Amino acid sequence: MALLNLEIPAGVFRNGTDLQSMGRWRDANLIRWIDGTMRPVGGWRTRSDTATAAKQRGMFTWSDNSSDRWIAVGTYNKLYVYNSAGTQSDITPSGLTPGREDAIAFTGYGGGNYSSYAFGIARPDTARIQPATSWALQPWGEYLLANNADDGKLYEWQLNTAVVAAQVANAPVSNRSIVVTDERFVMCLGAGGNPRKVQWCDRENNTLWTPAATNEAGDLELQTNGQIMAGTNVRGQTLILTTTDAHVANYVGPPYVYGIERVGSACGLAAHLAYQNVDVGCFWMGVHAFYGYTGGGVQELVSDVSDYVFNDINRAQISKAFAMSNGNYGEIWWFYPSSAATENNRYVVYNYVENTWAIGSLDRTAGHDSGAFRQPMMASATDLKIYEHEIGFEYDTLSPFAETGPIMMGAGDRVISVVEMIPDEKTQGDVNATFKTRFYPNGTERSYGPFGMSNPTSMRFTGRQIRMRVDGARLSDWRVGINRLDTIAGGRR
To answer: What is the C-alpha separation between 442 and 444, in angstroms, rounded?
Structure first.
């Protein structure tokens, strides 16, 4: 007999065929890896029992000058704030133009130019999709700035829950997004209905937008064949993402104020909120890949799960995808609607510290990292409430698990007989292990277990390929390292 060390690399590998994930974790939910050790993500609890009237598309948390904490969320037709006690206030601006809760494809009558196609002939798949409405929410000192592309106006809220957000005087309208730069300028992106125009106010004066020799207001137009989607601050620069490429705005002072440089091509942003900046740079979801900018130029991220994710997305509703960071663990989370869903129900996580990837299922429509609050906040698509995450280990009806691809001895031409397992687990009994065997790829699979972790764990099964699944047996902060199987190598039959 020989001990087979299950030294499975951290993270999920879901590209290519099942056999290509040999010796890797292939599926998981609510799992992360730290220092090579597998553990569950934290659970969640409601932060506020007051739901919004529609799906939340945009969230921001901050503290004011009095150290009071706030959560702002936007829906397709409303803007809300919550105080630290979870009390909801409707601060929807007067005259806000409602957008869309879901993306709409214009394929029917009126979806194209009049008399574009012959009667009785099916139209080609060239439909224009109107995205679901999402909000860009930015801090302006202790105040809140807000904009969504369907309404286009720039709003400011000044902390009084009895007064709604108000349109900023003299600011451009028909904007696609906004960003407040490190130099204290408000930039309107896609300003005035021009999808390539960037316009900024005078420094620290968001009501002065007309350029003059006595101020630093100004504008410029990107040389791009795309349309501006979003902007964020990255390592002293303002990164502007379009549907096709990426640019950085560098402050140069008067008279030009800002200079623009393209830093990436064919790296467009998939959705208005599908990006996140952290201390090392900015990461975002493109249409067919993930990208990062840490200075210099844009780089496509080498992803172990890109095949799975981009073949799984509902392209018609991809505008609902959003990203958020979990800085305590060095993670970027993207939530997106799967091909069988119209709402965000899946996630993919990139750990930029460990350089690992994870996947899972969770219905979240908006979120923001900890900072003003101790833990990250997210909005549920199911009950429209705000949840505080990384709290305990309660997961509603879900449970953490991870499952490997095939595990074989040698070339996989010989049968393996397993007689016992020697587990490597922090507190034995916190997880269960199930084993699945096959004699040929894509052949009939048999399942054995679940086995409770003990030292050693007796078991009996045989196969050419072995797959291991680990499930949380108790609601606890468990750890799983390198398990070992006591095996007997058999013949070819």
So the answer is: 7
End-to-end CA distance of the chain: 18
Q: How many CB atoms lie within 10 A of CB 354?
A: 17
Give phi and psi for 332, each to the nearest 5: -115, 125
Q: Assess contact for 220 and 257: CB atoms under 8 A.
A: no
Give the pLDDT band (50/70/90) at residue 115.
very low
Q: Which phi and psi angles does 141 have, rounded to 5°?
A: 65, -125
- Locus of tokens 């700035």: 145
Q: Which residues make Cβ contacts (< 8 Å) with residue 197, sequence separation at least 6?
A: 190, 191, 219, 220, 221, 222, 228
Taken in order of first residue, the domains within the chain and their CATH numbers are: 2-40+400-489 (2.60.120), 44-106+129-389 (2.130.10.10)
Quick one: CA dihedral 133, 333, 348, 284, positive or negative?
A: positive
Q: How many CB atoms lie within 10 A of CB 440?
A: 10
Tokens of 433: 């292990």
Phi-psi region of 233 (alpha: psi -120 to 50; beta: other; left: phi over 0): beta
- Report the alpha-carbon distance of residue 66 to residue 489 in Å, rounded: 69
Give the single-character DSSP code of 310: H
**Cis, bond preceding 255 (omega within 30 deg of 0):** yes
Query: What is the reported pLDDT for 114?
Result: 47
Residue 6 Cα distances to 3, 86, 425, 484, angstroms: 9, 46, 13, 6
Please name the residue that has the structure tokens 């050693």.
Answer: 456
Q: What single-letter amino acid sits at 283?
A: F
| 146-186 tens-digit pLDDT | 999 999 999 999 999 999 999 999 999 999 999 999 999 99
Q: Which residues pair with 2 in a beta bridge?
A: 487
Grouping H, G, I as helix, E, B as strand and the rest as coil, residue 464 is coil
* DSSP per-residue letters across 408-424: -STTS-S-EEEEEEE--
| Per-residue pLDDT tens digits for 300-330 | 999 999 999 999 999 999 999 999 999 999 9
DSSP per residue over 143-192, as a string? EEEEEETTT---EEE-S-TTS--EEPTT--SS-SEEEE-TTS-EEEETGG
**Rounded distance, CA 291 to CA 284, Å?**
5
